[in-house]
Design brief:
Elements: E1 6-11, H1 19-29, E2 33-38, H2 48-55, H3 73-80, E3 83-89, H4 91-99, H5 105-112, E4 117-121, H6 125-129, H7 131-142, E5 146-147, E6 151-154, E7 160-164, H8 168-191, E8 203-208, E9 213-216, E10 219-221, H9 228-239, E11 243-248, E12 260-263, H10 267-278, E13 283-286, E14 293-295, E15 314-316, H11 320-327, E16 332-339, H12 343-353, E17 358-363, E18 375-382, E19 385-394, H13 395-414
Parallel strand pairs: 1-2, 1-3, 3-4, 4-5, 8-11, 8-13, 11-12, 13-16, 16-17
Antiparallel strand pairs: 6-7, 9-10, 14-15, 17-18, 18-19
Bound molecules: cytidine-5'-triphosphate.
């Protein structure tokens, strides 16, 4: 996520400045182009050489140290930044930022930049809760500065409390999430206008929900699928102009309004419904959680208990996706893979085994991901490997991004 991102890292004079070395190292490892500006006080805690060696970029601290005559350094850094991160941020620099002071290279750059600004405060607990500092931080937040709250613990000054700079690993995660979010917003803005026509004239089949495999008239085997992901895809496909046929098994929510919906129960019912629609379809998205096994026999009347043990014999269902993969001609096929481990390996295996064009995989052990949630985070694979990673976002957004990718691939395939 940080590949090629220019991060101007302001390091100010607190003991936590030593953590700036680890922070630089982690950001650089993630692909960021890090440019450090240190205050004079920061140099009491960590050397320029350390940060220069880690970032492979010159370190700035003096506003008047103009090394490249073709540019004004603080303006150049301010303009090239994708993000200005101040870590650690002392009470002093927070005060200067709040009052618009610019008496050194860092604060001058902070005033000159239009890039987003993030700060990671670090100070003594009493300084952190001082009304002046609190007011300054509130001012900065009200102007759109993001605050990475300090952690609690034993502070270098001997006090226990809030004020310890957040750990570099956590700061890097926050920075990554920030860019992911920014990328998602930019994508939505760029694609919102063209989305309505993306699937015009296409016939799309979407399967959703979890199949029900009956044991007897009152008992069945099913799974945790809520149907939300499939429904979001059906709705998004319709909004993009497609003629959508939604085939829905058991779901927790109602199907989207205005979408042609066929209700089914078992894997066999779903198979029959999909096969009826398959020949003249262009795109099939198999978001349903289809039972891999069903009871060998379904009792026609309610089973009565007998003895201490009962054995239920199960037989394999027909794999719908695999069948479609075998017979597909012009159709673009998307499968789903809900995994709990080795996500990439299993997803790629399904893609090849079932002859899919894309496989949407998610790690359902992650919070906010998978069954029942309103959000999802997925990895989309094609035959070459990872095609797109979507960080945690609403299932509606995942649906739009997935369909936009499919539409692009289908257009390429036609030309
Ligand atoms: N699928 C299907 N028909 C089945 C079983 C699954 O069409 N009888 C589809 C699902 O709709 C989904 C994909 O196959 O798109 C999931 O693949 P699958 O290998 O069944 O995943 P799991 O059920 O997680 O199976 P495994 O135990 O092999 O991981």
């Amino acid at each position: 996520m940080l590949n090629g991102k220019v991060i101007v890292l302001g390091v100010t004079g607190g003991i936590a400045a030593y953590k700036a070395a680890m922070l630089c190292s982690r950001l650089v490892q993630k692909g960021a182009d890090v440019h450090v500006i240190m205050t004079e006080s920061a140099k009491q805690f960590i050397t320029e050489l350390t940060l220069q060696s880690l970032t492979k970029n010159p370190v700035y601290s003096d506003t008047f140290d103009e090394r490249d005559p073709s540019v004004v350094s603080h303006i150049h850094l301010a303009d090239m930044a994708d993000l200005v991160l101040v870590a650690p941020a002392t009470a002093n620099v927070i005060g200067k930022m709040a009052h618009g002071l610019a008496d050194d290279m860092l604060t001058t750059t902070l005033l000159a930049t239009t890039a987003p600004v993030m700060i990671s405060p670090a100070m003594n607990v009493h300084m952190y809760t001082h009304p002046a500092v609190v007011a300054n931080m509130e001012t900065l937040v009200s102007r759109g500065v993001s605050m990475i709250e300090p952690g609690e613990g034993l502070l270098a000054c001997g006090y226990v409390g809030k004020g310890r700079m957040e750990e570099p690993e956590t700061i890097v995660e926050v920075v990554e999430r920030f860019f992911e979010q920014q990328e998602t917003t930019e994508w939505s803005m760029a694609n919102e206008a063209k989305a309505p026509g993306l699937l015009e004239g296409k016939k799309v089949i979407v399967t959703a929900g979890g199949t029900i495999e009956r044991i007897d008239p009152v008992r069945y085997i099913t799974n945790d699928s809520s149907g939300k992901m499939g429904f979001a895809i059906a709705k998004a496909a319709k909004d993009m102009g497609a003629d959508v046929h939604l085939i829905a098994a058991h779901t927790d929510v109602s199907p989207p309004e205005g979408v042609k919906t066929e209700r089914v129960e078992s894997a066999q019912d779903m198979y029959d419904a999909v096969m009826r629609e398959f020949d003249d379809s262009d795109l099939i998205i198999k978001a349903a959680a289809v039972a891999d096994y069903r009871p060998l026999k379904t009792a026609s009347s309610k089973l009565k208990k007998q003895g201490e043990k009962m054995t239920l014999e199960l037989v394999k269902t027909t794999d719908i996706l695999e069948t479609l993969g075998k017979y597909k001609q012009k159709q673009f096929l998307i499968g789903f893979a809900a995994e709990t481990d080795s996500v990439e390996q299993y997803a790629m295996d399904k893609l090849r085994r079932k002859n899919c064009d894309l496989v949407v995989a998610n790690d359902v052990t992650k919070s906010g991901v998978g069954f029942g949630t309103d959000t999802n985070s997925v990895h989309i694979y094609d035959a070459e490997g990872l095609a797109l990673h979507l960080p945690l976002m609403s299932k509606e957004d995942v649906a739009r991004r997935l369909l936009a990718l499919a539409a692009e691939r289908m257009t390429k395939g036609e030309s």
